[in-house]
Amino acid sequence: MLALALALALGITLGLLTNVSVPLGLLTYLGVAMLAAIDACLGGVKASLEGSFDDRVFVSGFITNTLMAAFIVFIGDRIGVRELYLAAVVAFGMRTFDNLGTVRRLLFVRWGWER
Amino acid sequence: MKVQSHLPSRETFVHLKDASVKGLHASERVVGRSFSEARLTASLAVGLMLVGFLLVAQWRGAATFTHSLERQSDQNLAIIIQEIAAENNALRGEIVRLQMRLMETGQESEDRSRVLNEAAKEMQAVRVVSGLDAVSGPGIIVTIRDPERVLLPQDFVRLVHDLGAGGAEAIAVNGTRVSATTGFAGFDGTIRINDDVFSRTYEVSVVGHPDNLAQALELPGGLSSTLSTFPGVGVGISRAEEVRVPAVLQHDFEYAQKVENP
User: Fold this and answer.
1) Mutation for A interface: B43, B64, B65, B71, most A CBs within 10 A
2) Could you tell me if residue B259 is inside a domain?
3) Confidence of residue B206 (pLDDT cuts 50, 70, 90)
4) Residue B260 domain flag
5) Which residues of B touch A48 (CB under 8 A)?
6) Which of A22, A27, A103 would you mutate first to test chain B, the one with the most B CBs within 10 A?
7) pLDDT for B33
8) Quick one: average pLDDT of B182-196?
9) Which of A71, B42, B74, B216 is the most exposed place for a label (fewest CB within 10 A)?
10) What is the layout of strands, in order, in the sheet containing B176-178?
11) What domain range is B125 assigned to?
């Protein structure tokens, strides 16, 4: 867990140091893709706590979900339904909260806080 | 005699073998588990690092977007456009005002420099005419020989007049500049110009158009032919590209006073 928190902090520090900024045109694409990435990471944490983690599933899920999310936004832009990105946001948002709840419960079990 | 064997029995060997195989399997499982845990942590760590990096980049992009014009509402955009248009108009007015001032200043300085130039030219002309400056230029040199000393001051007065009619701009006799206050006097075959006295040989340097000056003297019945009729007098006229005429030595006005309001 500590290693994961350190990795997240390292990523944030790298971002702050490199002064990279997302161009305005790509803001929505990357935003939704990032939601998908967060969801994939939480899913990975959940799986690892459950003991069913498979790195191939995680890596492929991470890549596919982020690309798919950006693609949905792109398609929405092209076919004139700009709000299509909302579908991705809702789907990934729900999954994220779902995963978060499971992770929380599993952590309770691991730390012996469960009644 | 029965030999006591110290070797373990066959069952013991089988038992030992089973135990070692089990231990090997267990250790393999432990290694395999720790290896898969390392892979798990590494892949998750890379994913989270990517998420952290993107988070910052996205944060920065969104902050720029909030301040960009695309984010503004229509009303705000209309107000911004109005403000920019008003500022633009004010700046245009400022440009026109400044251009007019620039033109006025340019005109003023041009006028001033023209007046100054004209004044300087006039000043120079006045100095040349009054003989205050030594001058040089094309002209003629008139050489008069009078061995019999028969020439009179009025002959030189006529010479200066004729040269003036021929367009002479500066005249000097034997190196003495003829100016507005110059008079010719003399007696007994000598000629006094200002304070210098000359006789027998005279060299008159004249600046002006060489042909016009020569023509003024060589006209039929002109001074050259008149003087040549006098006994012993010889007149020579030579044109020169460069004739030097010295300045008047001094101008002291003892009586004349400038009139302030003519």
Assistant:
1) B43
2) no
3) very high
4) no
5) 40, 44
6) A22
7) 64
8) 83
9) B74
10) B176-178, B170-173, B201-207, B135-145, B234-245
11) 72-129
